[in-house]
Amino acid sequence: MPISIDDVMQLFCHLAQQKGMKATIKHSGRGALMAGATAFIGGLMGGPPGIAVGGALGGLFGAWMTAGQFRPVPQILLELPPAEQQKLYDEAVRIVRHLDWTDIAQLTSLVMGSASLQQKLTAVLINYLSKELSAEIQYGE
Prior knowledge:
7% strand, elongated
């Protein structure tokens, strides 16, 4: 049976929810901008020592600003643009195309009943999040 992109996203959301997956998208550019801006301001105000102090404080503030912004993976998946959802869809279809199912509820049941399928689909999801989105993944509620 043909499977829609929305059905695959729903399957990934269910799987991520069952595993308690959360992810944070790394915003290293924001942290670097903060460190550079405070080093510049420090240099204007205090010369060479101000650059060092401003860079250090900016780096710490930038790291604090971008750390710990974990969001549930289902929320991230549903916010993906269609082109990104298509990438995940293509990988998932390679795994589930051999299964015999009639609707998304039955497909979800088949996947959740098979540790092997769960592992394969979870690996696809983790690979996508870490490689494409540079996300850090955390498990548990």
